[in-house]
Amino acid sequence: MVQIPNEQATRAQVPPQRAAHSVPTSADVARRAGVSRATVSYVLNNVPAVRISEPTRRRVREAARELGYVPHAAARSLRAGQSRMVLMPSPSAPVGALYHRFFNEFQWALSRLDYTVVQYGSVGLSGDDAALAWAELRPVAVVAPGAHELGPQGVAILKRSGARAVITVGPRAVEGAHALLVDHRTVGRCAAEHLLARGCRRIGVVMPELTALEFYSRPRLAGVREAAEAAGAEVRELPLAYEEESAARLAARWRDWGLDGVFAFNDEYAMLLMAALRDEGLDIPADTAMVGVDDLVLGRLLRPRLTTVRMDLPSGQELAELVDRTVRHPGGSPVVRDLLGTTLVPRESS
Amino acid sequence: MVQIPNEQATRAQVPPQRAAHSVPTSADVARRAGVSRATVSYVLNNVPAVRISEPTRRRVREAARELGYVPHAAARSLRAGQSRMVLMPSPSAPVGALYHRFFNEFQWALSRLDYTVVQYGSVGLSGDDAALAWAELRPVAVVAPGAHELGPQGVAILKRSGARAVITVGPRAVEGAHALLVDHRTVGRCAAEHLLARGCRRIGVVMPELTALEFYSRPRLAGVREAAEAAGAEVRELPLAYEEESAARLAARWRDWGLDGVFAFNDEYAMLLMAALRDEGLDIPADTAMVGVDDLVLGRLLRPRLTTVRMDLPSGQELAELVDRTVRHPGGSPVVRDLLGTTLVPRESS
DNA sequence: TTGAAAGCGCTACCAG
DNA sequence: CTGGTAGCGCTTTCAA
Q1: Any residues with CB less than 8 A from the CB of B304 and at least 6 apart, and which?
Q2: CATH homologous superfamily for A24-71?
Q3: Among A48, A293, B149, B192, which is most exposed with the fewest C-beta within 10 angstroms?
Q4: Which residues of B touch A295 (CB under 8 A)?
């Protein structure tokens, strides 16, 4: 890798003239401005408690600019014993535009509160291993999407490493951490209740064959099951890859199953399935009622127009405030809040 | 809550916030194991050049486990003078599933090479301000999506702060940095050439009214213009919000324009426009030929099936290797590589 | 108003 | 084989 230059020995013998290619430090700025490192720090951080003469300030600033000095965040937070970093492990499941917007808002709100948001890609790690990797960065707060399967152990690791707020966003609360519940069972339940109210007794549930989506599809299925059982209706799982052939195979056996309602996982799978059923000569909603999720524009463009479940996320602002509050007063008991609202948008397909 | 009444006589004054929850350090581990901090470091890092007896190793590891010790990444990289962090400012424009997959691959490949990928949310910052913020983190490499408008100044800042590789991913090369060109003009040109070959002389270009998408739409338009001018064909911009009403307005005036071909920005906008034109009684491709972009599944489900431009990104593996090579041998002259391949997928809509 | 110096947590020298 | 120790770049207290 890197050849380690014997700089220590060199510097001991040679006057303190640093190598040309090294990164400028505050000491370099101080030397150039003819002041001490302390003064540099005071000037560049605008410390109000210390009064520095205007000429000195100018000299320092100029020296910093000329050298292209940039403070070293790691050194700073090491000294401070605290960083302002909010760590957000990047979700491993692909996320939709809805979540993307929510996240952008969240990030923006946090940076308004003077935090630094860092998304950390922890591919392949899960549970406590991931928690260890995150803890090395000493974030002041961690917002962990549920797919990472952070457990009570992991939460403890993070807290012991100095994280003042640990917040999970996912299907269930984790001991010791604040929890923003995003329970996709609600989505399934919402769709199923609509279908049941329409008189459906045999409900199909599309299950994408993409492993990454199981994180969403399983809870949605569970939600459908709950509602269906309560009403004495049947539920059938329908594995479906996101390809025409797979949908065609499903459609070919459709009549055998006698399904009068189908929950299509989301609007895109709904579109795929709808096309296949139409090719098979089946009528929606007469033969089978269909419900999607996400309220995409494409649902309005389909014929019949697609009934769908809209998910309502709260503003990123709110989440940012929760983070900030918790960082400032870490003592409080864990908050558990339901984050996910659902609204059924009825259209022609059901 | 464990209070550790640890009177260190040598510590004259107490640093800020020491008393509360003290995070265990390697010194704590050393004390508990009855060895020196150096030994702890050797054991936990498996330094091969130093031989430590097995009982000592065990004692150290056990002490670390009991205390829940996690090394402090910032302190480590401060000491090392080098981190293994690859900084990737998160793209501000919304990205599709295609890019998402590419990025995941890239991240995975880098972590195989023992780098740590960090996505840094620099909302609101652009150009040199962003570069300054990134430089504070002292990443060993920066991979900057084009939308951040990193300039030669910014590249210089990053390099002076110790970044050994600066790679831009975007429409044009920046002086001093490696460039992976992703020039969306290619996309527009590819679509336009197809339409021209089909005999189109008056080509409409859908321009999404979403500011964030201008980053893609402008170059694509430019690409269409280039191809059209070369062939003496006309080009008309068609502003379109992603809503039915907006598409209906466009469709209502469609006949006046006499467009015989339209480049619809992407498959989703194509679907929207196609529905509106159909409602207006226009026939595709007879009246107007249509081309989308992205080769989404939905394009195959439409009737007529949608002609589209498929973009081919290279494997994330390749990019990861470029990063690694550059970090190890930073001297080389900047590489400029065209990243974006395009393939036209002809279907029924053109 | 400015400077000297301690020390944040860690690792890599060199001595024992 | 293990321990002492210097110092990475920065901030901040205390002293001048």
Answers
A1: B284, B285, B347, B348, B349
A2: lambda repressor-like DNA-binding domains (1.10.260.40)
A3: A48
A4: none
